[in-house]
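Justification of resources, computational component.

The compute hours requested in this renewal are based largely on the per-chain cost of generating structure records like the one below. Each record pairs the submitted sequence with a full structure-token output. That output is archived, and it is also reused by downstream analysis tasks.
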Amino acid sequence: MNIQSESSFDTATRIAAGDVGKNYDGVAVALHWVTALLVVIQFALAVSWDSFPRDTRENLQSVHVSLGVLLTGVIIARIVWRLLPGHHRPAIVTGWVKWASKSVHTLLYALLFAQASLGFAWRWAQGHDVSFFGLFAIPGPYGALERATRHTLAEFHEYIGWAIVIIAFAHAMAALYHHYVLKDRVLGRMLPPVR
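The structure output for this chain reads:
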């Protein structure tokens, strides 16, 4: 689509989304895509394991817990990497688009952190350690909790999981809109470099 055939909304958004930034570094790009992949896998496991026999379901839940530990580490690494000097990139969008982008990113970080915390809390409330593929286990600071508490933790964990997937999907659609309609570099900054 060229500029002459853009709608007034597209034109207004393009004006708000100036292309003046630089790409993210390789570590930031890798951490972003590893996070996205782990979120998709975790969600797919959680919504599908009930259709399997008990032994398979328990194995899938064990993988889910282990990948949850990995995702927690990736989230922490992303936050630390982003806070280190020299790894933050200025936004290439301005105005309400910049505000919306920052808000969505902050919300996703908060939800991912809450989801990881709830995952640990729920596992410990069941009276289990949080194991990482059998290599090590993180013992809980408390023993098994009553059923109502476990149920509440499970519900919040599920609701936040759905919220993350829905917001991440909207985030991806916005990136595709920038790439294919506005033809700016918002998505390109987070793609691996092509040689």
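The two ends are 26 Å apart (CA to CA). Confidence is low (pLDDT under 50) at residues 1-6, 11-21.
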